[in-house]
Amino acid sequence: MVDWSPETYGPRWKNVYDEVGWPRPDAAVEFLSARRGSGRCLELGIGTGRVAIPLVARGVPLDGLDASPEIVEVMRTKPGGEAIEVTIGDMADFKLERKYSLILLLLNSLYALQTQEDQIRCFESVAAHLEPGGLFVVETFMPDPTRFRFGGRAHVYEVGLDHVRIEADTFDRATQQILENHIEVREDGIKLYPAFLRYTWPSEMDLMARIAGLRLRERWGDWANVPFDASSENHIAVYEKPA
Ligand SMILES: C[S@@+](CC[C@H](N)C(=O)[O-])C[C@H]1O[C@@H](n2cnc3c(N)ncnc32)[C@H](O)[C@@H]1O
């Protein structure tokens, strides 16, 4: 087991999260708005509000949940981010007063849960908070174990005159865990940005959904409704709670 807790990510990433070149949220916002249903939306692992803020601006009533008050504070500094109601808690096991017609778990955040057991508990908590007919949208990268040789890898991804950025990973195919640390080296010091994760294949995710009483409604390779196939690097699954 690794030394990682639900609160670890936020304080380590809060100052640089919005500088990472994440994809623009426009296509995701379009996709999600079309599936909003008639009730409220909940984003698990809402982070700095990358998708949540534009969704609210589109008129989607939305609440958030995150383990890290520090990263939510970043969202609070943004226009529209200060008004979003956020519960601090663990997405593996949460109890909220409201029910939702749409629950979101975006940008690989399911993988932040380090064990299969926690990931199943997350699906069960989601199912308990969905209205009948409500949808759960999960976005994850497609695992590619061929990236790793001899149980790990190091990859230099940015070299400048006064800095170098390196990603160092270990990979355990028995537990499906990737322990990843982004290393920034400068003359005045080194900074570490860890992201420990447990990946799941779409088939395993479908079984977790089934255990929780949800069923697969749609599967896509991209927010722009690109069909999911063997070449997909991204994976978007839409699960439904039977009406
Ligand atoms: C990769 S960020 C994604 C943020 C946002 N959803 C986005 O799309 O930009 C993952 C987020 O999940 C949160 N998180 C990690 N583990 C969590 C847990 N067990 N329960 C709740 N939130 C968690 C982190 O604090 C962080 O804000």
Question: Strands, helices and their partners?
Answer:
Layout: H1 9-13, H2 26-33, E1 41-44, H3 52-57, E2 62-66, H4 69-76, E3 85-88, E4 100-105, H5 116-129, E5 130-141, E6 152-159, E7 163-172, E8 177-186, E9 189-198, H6 202-211, E10 215-220, E11 234-240
Bound molecules: S-adenosylmethionine (SAM).
Keywords: Methyltransferase, Transferase
Organism: Saccharothrix coeruleofusca
Domain Methyltransferase: 42-134
Structure, described:
GO terms for molecular function: methyltransferase activity. This protein is of the alpha/beta class. It contains 6 helices and 11 strands. Strand 1, helix 3 and strand 2 form a beta-alpha-beta unit. The longest helix is centred in the middle third of the chain and has 14 residues. It is globular and about 55 Å long. The protein starts with 8 loop residues before the first helix and ends with a strand. The relative contact order is 0.15. The structure holds S-adenosylmethionine. S-adenosylmethionine (SAM) binds next to helix 1.
- Would you identify the CATH architecture of the largest domain? 3-Layer(aba) Sandwich
Span between termini: 39 Å
- Based on CA inertia axes, which overall geometry fits? globular
Total individual domains: 2
What is the CATH top level name of the largest domain?
Alpha Beta
Tell me the Rg in angstroms: 18 Å
* Count of runs of 4 or more consecutive helical residues: 6
Most strands sheet: 7 strands, mixed
What labels describe this entry?
243 residues; alpha/beta; Rossmann fold; N-terminal domain of TfIIb; 2 domains; seven-stranded mixed β-sheet; four-stranded antiparallel β-sheet; globular; binds S-adenosylmethionine; methyltransferase activity; Methyltransferase; SAM-dependent_MTases_sf; transferase
